[in-house]
Write a structure and sequence with these properties.
Layout: H1 11-15, E1 24-25, H2 28-37, E2 41-46, H3 51-61, H4 64-73, E3 75-80, H5 85-99, E4 107-111, E5 117-121, H6 135-163, H7 179-191, H8 208-221, H9 224-237, E6 253-254, E7 262-263, E8 266-267, H10 268-285, H11 288-304, E9 306-307, E10 310-311, E11 314-315, E12 318-319, E13 322-323, H12 331-340, H13 348-354, H14 383-397, E14 403-404, E15 406-408, H15 409-423, H16 430-444, E16 445-446, E17 449-455, E18 462-463, H17 466-483, H18 486-503, E19 504-505, E20 508-512, E21 518-519, H19 530-544, H20 550-559, H21 561-566, H22 572-583, E22 586-590, H23 592-596, E23 610-614, E24 620-623, E25 628-632, H24 635-647
Parallel strand pairs: 1-3, 2-3, 22-23
Antiparallel strand pairs: 2-4, 4-5, 6-7, 8-11, 9-10, 11-14, 12-13, 15-17, 16-17, 17-18, 19-20, 20-21, 22-24, 24-25
Length: 648
Amino acid sequence: MANHLKNEHSPYLQQHANNPVDWYPWGEEAFEKAKKEHKPIFLSIGYSSCHWCHVMEKESFENKETAKILNKYFVAIKVDREERPDIDKHFQEVYQLMNGRPGGWPTSIFLTEERKPFYSATYIPPEPRYGMMSFPTLLEVIADKYKTEKHKLTQEAESVLRQINPNKDKIQATKLDHSIIGRAIEHAGMLYDHRYGGFSKAPKFPQASLLDLLLDLYKLTGNKEALNMAAKQLSHMAKGGLRDLVDGGFCRYSTDDIWLVPHFEKMTYDNAQLSAVYLKAYHATGNTFYRDVAFETLDFMLEKMQEKHLFYAASDADTEGQEGKYFVYTYEKALKSFTKAGIPKEAHESLAKALHITPEGNFEGKNIVRVEDPANTDAIPYYKEAIEALKQRRQEKRKYPFIDRKVIVSWNAMMITSLFKAARVDPKYLKPAMKSLEKLLDTMYINSQLFHSTLIGKTPKIHAFLEDYAYLGEALIEAYESTMDETYLIVAQKLTNAAIEKFYKNGIWKFSRGEFETEAEIYDSSYPSSLATMVGLLHSITSLVDPVYKKFVFKSLEIHSYDVMRQPVSTPKLSKMVIRYLLDDVIIKAKEERLKEHITDLDTLPYPFSLLRTDTNDGFMICNTSTCFGHEKDFDGVREVLEKRQQK
């Protein structure tokens, strides 16, 4: 029998709708029940492609005996962190305060009937292990304590809540200066794995925003180390494992140092960011391999991860309860696929070896497809035929991982931004980019109200957060730069004004307001911080629309100057914004028809913070946000001026 999640839109909540646990969605019905029956609340936060969320569901939430305990003593609430990032951010902070370390998913929080948190954990095992008591035992202990010591638990909860968003009497600021450039390169080099690329030991995340910063710093300074760090990591990540050589697209992160064994979920935000970074590496190096990886990634997203021009949130790591089952091959099945594809038998052994397919396997006795030189696969006889054969096996014999078909504005906007950047290299991406942006605005921007997420065909209900305004505004700027259509700028300015009104006060940006008021982070995590992205949007609006917005840029940077100047690689996108603010944008102004001829030149200009803006003057004016300093008859002259500027 279905529980109270049965009418929810979220695919993650729907996954739990038939659990024997009597789950409620976050809302008044659950809160009223807790108050009326004087029961504590068990809050479980996760998302559909989270491996350990699936594990805990299978072990505990599908267990009738465990469910009986939960239903008897608690009101159980399920939250999709992607649908309600405000709730997740709040309770991640609660977890950090309670445990002295960052949390993870699933997040398990116990609250009083008044919604005050008194105990927090992540994954909880069904049997005693990892130094933890079993989930059923923990439930019994907490239920008993709540009955006999509720006053004490409430006091502890109130102590935690007092530490969230404390009053800041004094902002610690420092001077923003050009030393951040050298410091960023130096700090990145100290963290860098010079053998395999990346900025940590396993587990390794792509950290696309740091790669993006390094590529911009190379363009600004000519520092070869900055370029080599980015290029080497991008090459290693493309070998296979983190990058799916068969279907395309990138998985979430690598569990080892060499980018071979990933967590197999594929997130829209990773593929959006990485396709953009590979394109930037192509522009920096001229190496078409990076361009091809970017296009392959975008093609995967367009083929597998979108419907009616809107992009899904993620695909799962697990298939039929097994992680990676869809992605890996036994030696025998791989060779069988080669035979079926007509690849000569005498080529099988060397082909399998080139693809790292062996009888013993490289992942739990099976094989993740990988090559040593991904830029030179043409040197492998029958490579394309083999990849196609392995793809056919997946399509014919295997069930595709579960896809979370939720549409999230910020993540869609990231994909649209990348598509517009790709369209400046290959015009075939322009139409998909424009159609996706149009559909996203039609679906999620209703009567001048922006929403956060929905399912295709459903009316959105959750209002947008700062990240949605910031990333959608950024996509609209890319749309303008790729088309010179003023309509995009008008909407971008409108969204910027709304974001300032909703989320900004005296230099401080909130991620969310309302039920949970949470501060916008300056640190980049799975994707760049919403605050940094908003500052980038403000700088673009300053350059393209009205210099008055620059005061918001400065105030936002000043308040966080101490942290950014001290540890620039911890805040790559905000560090980039400090550098952009200090050096300023270059705005190239000309008549629309003349600019349109040079849209494809924008990404190859020697200065990374360059923008195009339609104007009525003859020739090309070269300006910054406060003045114009050059006038050239043709675009080659513009390029020469920027090259000389870089050499100073």
